[in-house]
């Protein structure tokens, strides 16, 4: 196979001029002339005075090593992995080090001297400054580690080049001895698609925005208006869903007042108005889990979230440990008063008239209890709210295993 990327480098020259001269008449098998192909890449030049460093910001590179003295492709493969591993970026998703995949081939010059072509895919992408030495593979010579060759050419994948992995790997497969595992040609483009899939699957607009800003910063700036439009309508077509408990409940131990309130609001009698249940009690007693144990509730955890209230198919609203004295809860009276219609606003959303008319369960621990607020308590009672204060060690549930043990002893 013609050596399109790197020719013999004389011991006395830098390797750069020789490469350009040898490429002048070659035709690249990647669909463009060889000189153009090389000029679009970056040349890692030997350690000579005035040699410029290499900066890379990419997820894939095609590297050619000329005049190597490593005969065994597997030895070269191991040396390359060793050289790059210590420089891999941190993977934010896992918290560990990033990964790389290597696929390459060994070819021989006319004089029998080996050279290597290597395709490398990084996950996550690398952002390296002055990184030419990162690609230097070492070999053992007289019980000492020495750089195998400094005649190294690095061509990074451009962001718009979706065929890079396919073309470069096809080139490696056309001749020589292949090593490593072939890289999925959808790598990179699939990762970019995953960003948007993760954003769409996010549970809140805030989470979706965080994903886009972190994983697609360029798109976040260039297409800011479109992304904001997406965030504004984030929950528009996302229906409410039944809650899945994190533990197996064997039996609920709701109080008589709680059961009476539920019977009065589910189903609501014709012409009736839903009411609020204020449930104050110790932590981990099952207040919120009981409140979420039927229907398809909307859940507001701590802060205000109008988008959550606008999901279609909501059966009731659960407010859990909300900081009701903060400014963001300026609409608290409309919510706990179970008003049929309210004019509300929220993050990413302009003020709008929203149809509510749903029963509300407000659960809280003692530290966030509104029981001492005379004005608010007066309003709740005027709206027909039911108020329940649980005892210190009172539990609203029994685990499935406890119920089975009780049945076995009877």
TrEMBL record:
InterPro entries with a match to the protein in the record: CRESS_DNA_REP, Gemini_AL1_REP_central
Keyword Calcium annotated: no
The keyword Nucleotidyltransferase appears for this protein: yes
Domain CRESS-DNA virus Rep endonuclease: 55-190
Keywords, ordered alphabetically: Covalent protein-DNA linkage, DNA replication, DNA-binding, Endonuclease, Hydrolase, Metal-binding, Nuclease, Nucleotide-binding, Nucleotidyltransferase, Transferase
One Gene Ontology term from the biological process aspect of the record: DNA replication
UniProt xrefs under Gene3D superfamilies: 3.40.1310.20
GO molecular-function term, one example from the UniProt record: DNA binding
Pfam families in the record: Gemini_AL1_M
PROSITE patterns: CRESS_DNA_REP
Domain of life: Eukaryota
Protein name: CRESS-DNA virus Rep endonuclease domain-containing protein
């Amino acid at each position: 196979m013609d050596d399109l990327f790197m020719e013999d480098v004389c011991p006395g020259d830098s390797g750069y001029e020789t490469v350009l001269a040898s490429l002048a008449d070659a035709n690249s098998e990647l669909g463009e002339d060889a000189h153009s192909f090389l000029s679009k890449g970056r040349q890692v030049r030997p350690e000579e005075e005035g040699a410029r460093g290499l900066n890379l910001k990419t997820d894939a590179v095609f590297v050619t090593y000329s005049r190597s003295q490593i005969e065994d492709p597997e030895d070269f493969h191991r040396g390359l992995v060793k050289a790059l591993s210590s420089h891999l970026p941190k993977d934010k998703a896992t918290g560990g080090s990033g990964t790389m995949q290597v696929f390459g081939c060994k070819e021989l010059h006319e004089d029998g001297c080996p050279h290597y072509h290597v395709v490398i895919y990084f996950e996550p992408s690398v952002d390296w400054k002055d990184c030419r030495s990162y690609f230097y593979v070492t070999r053992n010579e007289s019980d000492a580690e020495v750089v195998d060759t400094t005649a190294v050419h690095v061509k990074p994948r451009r962001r718009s080049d979706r065929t890079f992995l396919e073309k470069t790997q096809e080139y490696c497969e056309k001749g020589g001895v292949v090593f490593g595992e072939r890289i999925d040609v959808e790598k990179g483009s699939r990762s970019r698609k995953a960003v948007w899939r993760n954003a769409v699957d996010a549970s809140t607009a805030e989470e979706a925005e965080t994903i886009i800003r972190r994983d697609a910063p360029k798109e976040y700036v260039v297409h800011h208006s479109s992304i904001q439009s997406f965030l504004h309508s984030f929950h528009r077509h996302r229906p409410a869903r039944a809650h899945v408990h994190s533990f197996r409940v064997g039996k609920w131990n709701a109080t008589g007042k709680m059961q009476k309130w539920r019977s009065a609001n589910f189903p609501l009698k014709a012409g009736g108005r839903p009411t609020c249940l204020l449930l104050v009690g110790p932590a981990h007693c099952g207040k919120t889990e009981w409140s979420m144990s039927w229907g398809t509730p909307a859940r507001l955890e701590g802060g205000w979230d109008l988008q959550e209230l606008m999901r279609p198919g909501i059966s009731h609203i659960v407010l859990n440990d909300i900081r009701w004295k903060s400014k963001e809860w300026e609409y608290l009276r409309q919510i706990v008063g179970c008003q049929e219609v309210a004019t509300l606003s929220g993050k990413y959303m302009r003020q709008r008239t929203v149809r509510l008319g749903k029963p509300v369960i407000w659960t809280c621990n003692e530290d966030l209890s509104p029981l001492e607020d005379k004005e608010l308590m007066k309003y709740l009672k005027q709206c027909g709210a039911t108020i329940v204060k649980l005892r210190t060690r009172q539990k609203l549930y029994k685990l499935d295993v406890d119920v089975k043990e009780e049945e076995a002893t009877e």
